[in-house]
Amino acid sequence: MTTKIAVIQKPPVLLDRHKTIEAALESIDEAASAGASLLVFPEAYISGYPTWVWRLRPGGDMGLLSEIHARLRQNAVDLEGNDLEPLQKAAARHGVTIVIGVHEIDSHYSGTTLFNTVVVIGNDGSILNRHRKLMPTNPERMVWGMGDASGLRVVDTPAGRLGSLICWESYMPLARSALYAQNLEIYVNPTWDCGETWLTTLRHIAREAGCWVISTATAMEGCDVPESFPERDQIFKPDEWINDGGAVVVNPSGAVIAGPLLREKEILYAEIDAEVARRARRSLDVCGHYSRPDVFSLSVNRKPLPPATFTD
User: Fold this and answer.
1) Residue 292, domain member (yes or no)
2) Which tens digits make up the pLDDT trace of 137-196?
3) pTM (2 decimals)?
4) 167 is a catalytic site residue
5) Is residue 54 in a domain?
6) Quick one: which of 31, 168, 201, 209 could link to 6 by a disulfide (CB 3.0–4.6 Å)?
7) Residue 19 among the catalytic residues
8) Catalytic hit among 10, 104, 133, 208
9) Rounded Cα distance, 221 and 241, in Å
10) Number of domains in the chain
11) Given 10, 104, 167, 169, which residue is catalytic?
């Protein structure tokens, strides 16, 4: 049974959670009206990937970096609150599954630390999974803390069994294996990367796992950065492409069936079928008949790792 999917690479409104959620709701309505039932948004979509950390020198203008980070924190998503409720209601109203990247704030313990998180919202509006990026890349560590493995889970959706890693987590072989070993059929990779090298990685994963691979960054120009962004004109040029997007869908044999969608602030559509993934593993099942558990072993600690425990 095929499922129509929508890969959404339209830009968010940087540092503005409310306006970005409004934009997401418009895209959800558009994709659902087109018949899509699995919707994928980019990495850190709410409220925008922190591309400025690759442009501003660490330890440089600390006042500017502090102001940007404060606004990012103020617009982060609190999963213990109701920040994603509009998206959850939209998922239930349309009967769609949504995979979306967010800046998540730890309101329970520190009240300040942010995580790069991907959230899976079920077609009944419930949150099926929350995965925090295990290892932020290079200057990203000035923005996000490191997540634990409690979200390294594959969940059931109407489209198939779905798991997600974020951006360069896809270069972590053991993280991939942790998902493969859970009967993975759909691998979703919200990202900021794109281009030929990245596409090669995605095609390899599809072939290696025998699963569908869905990925997208954000298609974004300098003119998409709002005027309210601190020192916008110092950091961005209005006519530059900050990111090309690169929304793509790869089938379980490693062939690209849709995309890459480049420099278009649009939605990429495709049809996928979980049965194709199951059949693809007949010859190569890396966590089944092609594994050697007598030689190799993988142990994954999925216990939540809170910074403190309290006994009253």
Assistant:
1) no
2) 999 999 999 999 999 999 999 999 999 999 999 999 999 999 999 999 999 999 999 999
3) 0.97
4) yes
5) yes
6) 31
7) no
8) 133
9) 4
10) 1
11) 167
